[in-house]
Amino acid sequence: MAAATADGPGTGDDRSGAELAQVLSALGGYRVYARRWVFLLVLSLLSCSNATLWLSFAPIADTVAKHFSLSLEQINWLSLVYFVVSIPFGMAAIWVLDSVGLRSATVLGAWLNFLGSVLRALPCMDLSIQTPFSFLLAGQSLCALAQTLVVFSPAKLAALWFPEHQRATANMIATMSNPLGVLLANVLSPALVKEEGDIPWMLGAYVIPAGIACLLATACLWENVPPTPPSAAAASSTSEKFLDGLKLLVRNKAYLILALCFGAGIGIFSSFSALLEQILCVKGYSNDFAGLCGALFITFGFLGALCLGRYVDRTKHFTEVTKIGFCLTSMACVAFAVIEGALIMVLLTMLTVRRAEPSFSTCQHEEALLDWMVSMLLMASLCAACSCVFVLFFHTPYRRVQLEASAYPSIQEDYVQGGADPAPPREPHPEPPAPHRQPALHGGVGECVSRRCSGSAAPGEP
């Protein structure tokens, strides 16, 4: 322990909060493992692949519909099936994650994702198939089942494998891999499919990352949890029984507001991404331009998340960041609606009407052209309403941070200064002998390190 003192933080406030957290984690007996980054890589690749499979048809909906002799409504169902499947199987996926563990759930999701990608490519491999839509829909359904396991995993991975100063960053990387896949689908599908004959190549191309993710998940993931927890929160983490947990959630006001507002936000984003090509083609824009617009939405969102992930890791201002981000998103939706004039996607489609005035449409499908003005205004209004509800009524303490703050007084002091509710006070410790004392560091961390390393801690002190 003497080495820990000598190699620990120096004097002054020149050390970052992350370095202090590392020292305190070492003193508490917690440990991090390099293979946590392998787990994060596999889960991120799987999430990215799953998102490309979900949206691969949307940017070229009219071309795919013409190639397989399908209607645009059928093509929309290839994206909509993700929402339909997530309703009944989302709860089951949560139970699977709690029951079989993170590693087993990830491997299962990887295999479902790979098999779905292969199944939807069969109509192009076997020309004798008379009902291509059934294979496309079945493949998308398997990928949708995989998504229910993938989208709930980032937060669990960050909590179980990463220390407190890396949780938000790890969660951001894994979570943003999904919209990164949406970006790739918006760019790659129009780039790969210039004419109907290119569709088999596109379907085959999307099998490759799904296969790589499946191979890595099966061969490189060995454990559900690390041998030693990385933080106090991970060490004391307990899960309620499934039904008991649901009862607690429905009585939690903050959770209900968060679920309502962010559920609507995710639904709006997903519907917008799936329908963007159809919305823009009636205005005379090409598939390439529609894909570029979708890619730009994701690119700037990814850059913002990268910066904000590091910011909230250091400041713990989760609520403030999400409120500002939600408001900016609403402004973008309103702007797009005024420019352009599972339930949400269906509603947006139902509200379309046939265009009466002449159109500069680039849609290749022969169905009647639609006007998306009312649908876009509804989307903007819904997003703005959810932003107002979230900003005005969502207020909740960060309980995981409070737990860690109660274990480490220095973190508690920083947390209280940040404006959050303080954790329960700890009993004062007796002062150590003068020869062992060191200069106070960042709210008493140096003194805490000195007492622990010199063996002068009070009885019962960890």
Keywords:
462 residues, mainly alpha, two-stranded antiparallel ribbon, 70% helix
Walk me through this protein's architecture.
This protein has 21 helices and 2 strands. The protein has 462 residues and is an all-alpha fold. It has a two-stranded antiparallel sheet. The longest helix is centred in the first third of the chain and has 29 residues. The two termini are 14 Å apart.
In terms of topology, how is this protein built?
Elements: H1 2-6, H2 17-27, H3 35-55, H4 61-67, H5 72-100, H6 102-119, H7 122-125, H8 132-150, H9 153-161, H10 167-192, H11 199-220, H12 232-235, H13 242-250, H14 253-281, H15 287-315, H16 318-340, H17 343-350, E1 353-354, E2 370-371, H18 373-393, H19 399-407, H20 409-417, H21 445-454
Antiparallel strand pairs: 1-2
Helix pairs in contact: 3-6, 3-8, 3-9, 3-10, 3-11, 4-5, 5-6, 5-8, 6-8, 6-11, 9-10, 10-15, 14-15, 14-17, 14-18, 16-18, 17-18, 19-20
